[in-house]
Batch of 2 targets.
Target 1
Amino acid sequence: MKKNFKNYYSAALITGAAGFMGIQHALALLELNLYLVLVDKDFGKLKKTKSRILKTFPNANILIFKCDICNEKTIVSIKKKLDKLKIFVKVLVNNAAIDPKMNSIGKGKSGSVEDYNIKNFRKEIDVNLIGAFICIKVFGKDMAKRNQGSIINIASDAGLVAPDQAIYHPQENIKKLKHFKPASYSISKHGLIGMTRYIATYWGHKKVRCNALAFGAVKKNQSKFLIKNITKRVPLGRLAKETEYRKSILFLASEDSSYMTGQVLVLDGGRTTW
Ligand SMILES: NC(=O)c1ccc[n+]([C@@H]2O[C@H](COP(=O)([O-])OP(=O)(O)OC[C@H]3O[C@@H](n4cnc5c(N)ncnc54)[C@H](O)[C@@H]3O)[C@@H](O)[C@H]2O)c1
């Protein structure tokens, strides 16, 4: 790999890289011939992610770090380690998030506003918003100094519209609903889009771009009724495949989007158009 900026290697740092979608972003960004810096609080899963990537791309340059993105000191120490290795984070993907689990068919209640546990709410906002801001603060500052960089905030269709709670009931009977999509997720993703606009205008003159990517639901192991209910609300009539966002990550990270900042790229099968 060539050093190309004042003797520094360029890198893409992905937070929450050990999760379901993290590896997809990593595989996309390999196309830009960047170092990959993968961070997550789950180091075991992170090691597995690295091995999975190396199996297909044995020459990929990958560094992994265990970290809690809410801990500014840890993020600063990762930055210092990268500095020593002459690695510059040119692309930051704020992907880590807590999507609070809800029990969509079990007994009891979950996610209701009336009973929401405020301690959980604070933790969820801490990771989804403040953690992303800390990474922007630490790595974006360096991008601004070097007058280049792209920040990609992973939002969601739930950052553009409120969740339609009816999908979480088999017969879509909102009156019988016991399990709700928790407030913190949608609220934090709306906030992340606000942060995207703020940072885009704050550092535009420094040639640091900041955009959000709003995904729709990806097919994984959702219940049959949930898939059916979501599908009805998506004009393209299906959930996304996990590989379907790769090109959009690549687009936002690369010079192909050189005149784009402060925007939300929406890939949701059309769900938020009606
Ligand atoms: N999967 C989907 O259907 C979908 C849809 C729309 C948007 N998104 C968004 O895409 C992103 C990735 O989703 P995913 O499905 O891969 O989620 P995931 O839960 O599989 O992965 C999230 C990762 O973040 C890590 N993480 C959580 N808190 C952390 C912290 N404090 N510090 C460091 N790492 C932390 C977790 O360990 C996990 O590996 C999220 O921002 C999510 O909101 C996902």
Note: The pocket of nicotinamide-adenine-dinucleotide is lined by residues 15-16, 18-22, 40-42, 45, 67-70, 95-99, 127, 131, 154, 156, 215, 217-218 (CB under 6 Å).
Target 2
Amino acid sequence: MEMENKRIIIVGGGLAGTFLAANLVQKGASVIQYADPQKIPASSVAAGLVNPVTGRQFAISWKAIEFLTALESFFQLPGFESLAAHYHSLPIYRPFPDIRSCNDWTARSHDSRFDDIATCTYEAWKPEWLINPLGGMIIHRGGWLNVNSFINATRGLLQKTGRFKFIAEKINYSEIDPQLSNLQRLEGNIEFSQLVFCEGIYGTLNPWFPAKLVPLKGQLITFRTRPNLNRIISSGQFMVPLGEDLYRLGSTYELNYYTEAPNTEPPQELVQGLSSFWLPKVTEWVKLEAGIRPTTLDRKPIIGQHPEWPTLWIFNGLGTKGVLQAPALATQLANAILNQSPGEILRDCNPNRIALHKP
Ligand SMILES: Cc1cc2nc3c(=O)[nH]c(=O)nc-3n(C[C@H](O)[C@H](O)[C@H](O)COP(=O)(O)OP(=O)(O)OC[C@H]3O[C@@H](n4cnc5c(N)ncnc54)[C@H](O)[C@@H]3O)c2cc1C
């Protein structure tokens, strides 16, 4: 692997750009990362939830165990151990909504793939606070990442290596010359060996990767209530304990929206969802936030090299599962870039796949 003289430019400072930068620098490459401060990254509002078991069908999501293992391994990489403080490993509790789900989920949990992942319990847990008369499912390998503090801490660690520079500025497409591998900035030309677009939803107009992204707005609320729980609750909505009586409640999934901004009042969908399982009083609605998730039609990320301009790459489409998916995929992409071997990236993520082009 030739690592000398590889100045790699990353456009984007969210989860995709950050995990990629960490992998590249850890492997010896030099990275300059740009992030436009005028844009609100989805990562800056994400609840950071990691749940390998999702959906009404209670299924293990795509590659979830492989991805979860990569996330856990990331925090064991030499030099990155301190970043584990930003990941809170917590069980996720899913109350059974009805008898039928109780039977279905119980049958599923006997599948060997659920060993060490989830167990069922048939007694109400904390019934004085939580409506769960039939018991529920405990997902043991769940947790949440404090995304903002993680990203800031990662940048700090990378800067100390002397091979990483973070610049809070916008890159205009007209500044990029893939033929000369040049970035034409006002302060002078910057030569790059590779350039990776990690732009999230803002990559929709990218001329080299006309990304087939589906913008999906999400809103979530930070609120105050008592008592403190030591489990994440997932009951239509999720409720993540942040400590000190603070919780995050989310999220909405809005395909049609008129503004990227959050509502002025907490969305009814969230408030009613909470009251369907949580009995204690909300003492304060602290903060309402919104962001746009970069999703795709087939719910798989978009990762790969440009077919004609081999110095250009994309890492996008992390959708609703950025925290779970980014670590494993960033490792694959970093290896592919450094070895010039795009075949190392999961074929499901190929930017040219047909599934992305369906109407
Ligand atoms: C309300 C909500 C809740 C969510 N909850 C969860 C959750 O619980 N768990 C989970 O895993 N995921 C969650 N997500 C999804 C998660 O946020 C995304 O999967 C992830 O953040 C996408 O990361 P990204 O780096 O691809 O994009 P972003 O985080 O959007 O980052 C894009 C970056 O590109 C930069 N950029 C774009 N264009 C340019 C340019 N021309 N020049 C310079 N910089 C540029 C932006 O400034 C930004 O830094 C949630 C999302 C929302 C909105």
Note: The CA atoms of residues 52 and 64 lie 5 Å apart.
